[in-house]
Amino acid sequence: MYREKMSVCQKYYPNEPKEPVVVTDKVPGPKSVSELKKLGEVFDVRPSYFMADYENSIGNYIADVDGNLFLDLYAQISSIALGYNNPALIKAASSPEMIRSLVDRPASGNFPSAELHSQISKLLEYAPVGQDKVWSGVNGSDANELAFKAAFMYYKAKERNFSADFTEDELTSVMENKPPGAPKLAVLSFKRAFHGRLFATASVTCSKPIHKLDIPAFHWPHAEFPAYKYPLDKNEKYNRNEDIRCLENVEKIIKTWHMPVAALLIEPIQSEGGDNHASAFFLQSLRTLTLENNVVYIIDEVQTGVGATGKMWCHEHANIKPPPDLVTFSKKFQSAGYYFHDPEFIPSKPYRQFNTWCGDPSRMIIAGAIGDEITSNKLVEQCAAVGKFLFSKLEELQEMYPQYMQNLRGKNRGTFIAWDLDDEETRTQLLYKLKLNGCNVGGCAERSVRLRPSLTFDKKHADIFISALEKSLSQME
């Protein structure tokens, strides 16, 4: 007798619900409201959607304390790779190696554990094409700031012909935060970009004012990011001209900015800033520009990395040659840091790229387990196939509700899919109706909806979402 092949989701989550369950007429429900009020006495709960119940969340479903069970297409802001309460990750988290890393968290720079080599080697198994080295961090913002440090030190080392010696003037002036020891150098990023909320990352973030108000900033430039017309196949000429316009803007900034541009930082898909996709031509042309102008090329894969775009790393769709200098990561990998390949990015002296823990071995253990599960279960390939199926269904809905599904984008980019509505208020209404219809979905920028399910999201989940979306859109009429 023929038996349908068991899906990865069924293997992990045999008891996953068949459909969402919504038992309250409002979200957040009464118990969430009560619990959030109590939590609000010691924590800022103003951004909270609802009070989650992680013990009863499973697979692609997130539970709340009111007994609601939502199909989750937001996945902790795109940071859950394999769904909730994944048995393979629970096994990794229960290992003696994990217990040691948590209880005796090593100061790895000074006292590395005998297991650190294997932990780092595991991260390197899943490195982007062309990268064979890694430096570990704590989160996405940290990864980007560490990459800035690496870029600046490399840029200045190159000026010294990679001599390890510093002048007396450099050693003295740096203690007063003045050149030449503290040089005036810039990182070029892009309008609408989001790279984090720390001090240097706030200066390269340019998505919303709220992310950086009142924070002293570096005077660093923001270039134009292409604004394409969709569908792509019907607007090729316009979009190529848009790429060229933005490349000319980048080149002009590099050549005319009032201080040297040491590094260029870009997300292959600007996520928080509105799910704005960069073409392969644009990303490759930036590689050419950075090589011609002695600029370090940094790809920010914090949100786009680890499989969700139908490649392990989103920029691999562009086949960038030679490969980027640095690739930062976090979110779905649970660990963080940057990959690189040129040994000259390792500082000339110890303690220059350094902190107490030099990353977190416990997160490296989880990252390694995530990578193993993605590879052994072909989850990148599954994400590409499910994304293709989901996108085709969304195209059908777009024909029915064009006023609520503008600029549908993400074709052939796995489940990294988004679209626009007329304004923020209408977008907020749709996201709320989706919750009442059993789906937890996130927005980005002022009027975009973005999909960020886990890699175990399959066609049955896509069908559930499409039904909930169609119902929600009909309720918008």
Automatic annotation (TrEMBL):
GO molecular function, one term: pyridoxal phosphate binding
Keyword Transferase: yes
Assigned GO CC terms: cytosol; mitochondrion
Domain of life: Eukaryota
Enzyme class: transferase
Cofactor(s) the protein needs: pyridoxal 5'-phosphate
Reaction(s) catalysed by this chain's protein: 4-aminobutanoate + 2-oxoglutarate = succinate semialdehyde + L-glutamate
Keyword annotations: Aminotransferase, Pyridoxal phosphate, Transferase
EC number: 2.6.1.19
Record's keyword annotation contains Transcription: no
GO biological process: gamma-aminobutyric acid catabolic process
Family: Belongs to the class-III pyridoxal-phosphate-dependent aminotransferase family.
Protein name, UniProt field: 4-aminobutyrate aminotransferase
